[in-house]
Amino acid sequence: MRRKQIILLVASTAIFFEALDIAILNLAIPLMQKQFQLDAETVQWVQTVYVLFYGGFLVIGGKLCDTLGRKNIFLTGAGLFLCTSLGAGLSNSFIMLTAFRALQGLAAAMVMPSALSIITNTFTVPEERNRSISIFSSFAAIGSGCGLALGGIVATYLGWQWIFFINVPVISLALILAYKYIDKDVLNKHRQFPDIISSILLTVVIVLISYVVHNLPGVSKNYQRLLACTVVIVVAMYIFKRRERTRQQPLIDFSLFRSTGTITGNGITILLGAFFLSYLFLLSLVLQQNMHFSAAHAGLLLFPFSVLSFLVSRYVVPALFKKLTVLQTGILGMCLMLSGALLLMTAILFGHPMSLILLSIACVTGSGMSVCYPSLTALAIRDIPDAQQGIAAGVCTTSYFIGAGLGLSLLALGMQLVTATTTTVNHVSVLLVGCFALPGVIWLLLVRKRIQS
């Protein structure tokens, strides 16, 4: 039993640091922006490349667990995460930092599915497995909460580099325990090796699309580079589609995604990813640059709402699923997100009253995200056969992170086109973020008659 508890703790470290590394960066971004003398549109790439590489390689990470072994992939991914965390902290240029963040996203895409696979194969009794997965999932809320608080405090008093350095000792210990306690892999030699080339092509496409979108305002100066990127995107998409049609085991079996519920769940998950990370990005700028909070003060302000998010996930969401349908719960969650954006926009228009700021945070990070994510995931996989729900859940998670990366790039494009400043956030910037949530609400309302439960 003690061995199983250690394995659960080690595997849960994966989702903790995945959530931590996304959340912790938000309050450190203004400090990076100041050190490297960047505008708000450029500095967001340090977050964008992480989520795009994470989302782009997540499916292949799960498939590698089946061919190379869950323990091998966990150790490799965790080792890479440790090295890239160290490299990011030691970076002396923004290009170097961004490169290490991209590799960190790749590492997270390896660690995440292997950690979940380790848990499901260690705890085989249904009651034990459900309890372990619940504990594993709760570490995400804890990681987000710690990230929002620690990001500001650590960056303020130790420097932004330490938001990466703090990963090193904990992951080192996790690697030692994983090597010692996790069972050795039993490999299936007859299983077909996953299509890594298709995964690389998919990631190249979504990263280059983000780059092109981000740089559209300067198309007259960079038209040759953007044209070259567009050609690469078209060629890579053609090769990807051709490979997916001809392989016996494609990277993503799109024939699974034909029902209204599956299409709706994945489509709105993309919008959710675009909204949530863009909202956190703007919120950190509002608190630190508009309202002149220190990063530490901003972190402490956000921490209670992460605790609230955990409580909503643990107690409120299960009660909602008993009272409402999955679709109704999703509508409620997206309405909370839209309300949060409207409240933040109103707060900026009326001189940043703290009551409106707090209500906005409560709607988005305190409750909306906790309601949206499980309901949309449930909607996305409800019509998928049981034997293929794992890959369907992986595609849904991939949709979220691809949406997050593209959303940040679209936000940067909008800020360059319609806002007059790159140092502070105005109401138009928040309105752009609200435009990610509004289509989600409308979409869910339009399909409610076709999805009865």
UniProtKB/TrEMBL annotation:
Topology in the lipid bilayer: Multi-pass membrane protein
UniProt xrefs under SUPFAM superfamilies: MFS general substrate transporter
Subcellular location, record wording: Membrane
Record bears the keyword Transport: yes
Superkingdom assignment: Bacteria
TM region(s), chain numbering: 7-31, 43-61, 73-96, 102-123, 135-156, 162-181, 193-211, 223-240, 261-282, 294-317, 329-350, 356-379, 391-415, 427-447
All residue ranges annotated as the Major facilitator superfamily (MFS) profile domain in the record: 7-452
Pfam families found in the cross-reference section: MFS_1 (PF07690)
Main localization, broad class: membrane
InterPro entries: MFS, MFS_dom, MFS_trans_sf
Keywords: Membrane, Transmembrane, Transmembrane helix, Transport
Classification via PANTHER family: MAJOR FACILITATOR SUPERFAMILY MULTIDRUG TRANSPORTER MFSC (PTHR42718)
Name of the protein this chain belongs to: MFS transporter
Organism: Niastella soli
